[in-house]
Amino acid sequence: MHAILTRIDRAESTNDALRVMVEEGAPDGRGIYTSEQTAGRGRRGRAWVCPSGTALALSVALVGPQHQAYTMQLPLAAGAAVADVIRAETGLVPELKWPNDVLISGKKVAGVLCEGVHDGTRLRGVVIGVGLNINVSQGEFPQELESIATSLLAESGITYEIDHLARTLHAAILDRVALLSANRGALLDLWRKHDVTAGRGVRVGDLTGKATGINADGALLVATPKGDKAIRSGEIEWTD
Ligand code: BTN
């Protein structure tokens, strides 16, 4: 697929800007990115804060009914794409915290937000948004994020070209989605290569136990005193 990716000077949220473009007919694979996102959104209604000029906000549109078959696994496909690109481009060792937080040495370097675009009740497409901290110095993070966030620069001492990483990440996301559609097991194996969730104590909502991996759907398996549970969506906290 030849998909178009454009840099925009500024956006409140690249996910919102791309959703409007999809509603107006943008094709499958269309991507937009900026390093000036002023009102980024994170998962669960949180804000995604990225310092101006040094972080990447990228959104990629998947348009068409063919994507409906695997919406549950898209966050894992995007997370695996981000981790693979970081590994290949920087040599750093990214870690995936289920389903799609990307960490380095336990601190968050990138997050993924997948959102459906609907025509009434019909799913027209999905917008995959990725926020990646690239050339952010550790002192540039807001104080409340300092101990939990990191960047490629902070981890390596090297600055990276944002345009190059945006192009590479756009291509990698589309490649991993194609793999997901052809061979879900192979895509989940790519995700497992970076998994730091299995073996850890976790809390998800009311449930506490030990994560043992992901199943064939990408659901998180948690061993609890009441038996094994499969969690299809949610956010985990470490308990150990
Ligand atoms: C998270 O909470 O971990 C997800 C963060 C996702 C942020 C990205 S930045 C590009 C895209 N546009 C947004 O408003 N959010 C996503």
Q: Key terms for this structure?
A:
alpha+beta, binds biotin, 26% helix, 5-stranded antiparallel sheet, 7-stranded mixed sheet, 240 residues, single chain
- Sketch the topology as an H/E string, one letter per element: EHEEEEHEEEEHHHEEEEE
**Mean of all residue-level pLDDT scores:** 96
The N- and C-terminal alpha carbons lie at a distance of 44 Å
Structural class: alpha+beta
Strand content: 25-35%
Mass-distribution shape: globular
**Widest sheet: strand order?**
1-2-5-9-8-7-6
Give the ligands present.
Answer: biotin
Per DSSP E runs of 2 or more residues, the count of β-strands stands at 14
Biggest pleated sheet:
7 strands, mixed
The number of helical runs is 5
Low-confidence parts: none
Radius of gyration computed on alpha carbons: 17 Å
Q: Topology, pairings included?
A:
Layout: E1 5-7, H1 14-23, E2 31-34, E3 40-41, E4 47-48, E5 55-63, H2 74-90, E6 94-97, E7 101-104, E8 107-119, E9 122-133, H3 152-156, H4 162-182, H5 184-192, E10 201-204, E11 207-214, E12 220-224, E13 227-231, E14 236-238
Parallel strand pairs: 1-2
Antiparallel strand pairs: 2-5, 3-4, 5-9, 6-7, 7-8, 8-9, 10-11, 10-14, 11-12, 12-13
Helix pairs in contact: 2-4, 2-5, 4-5
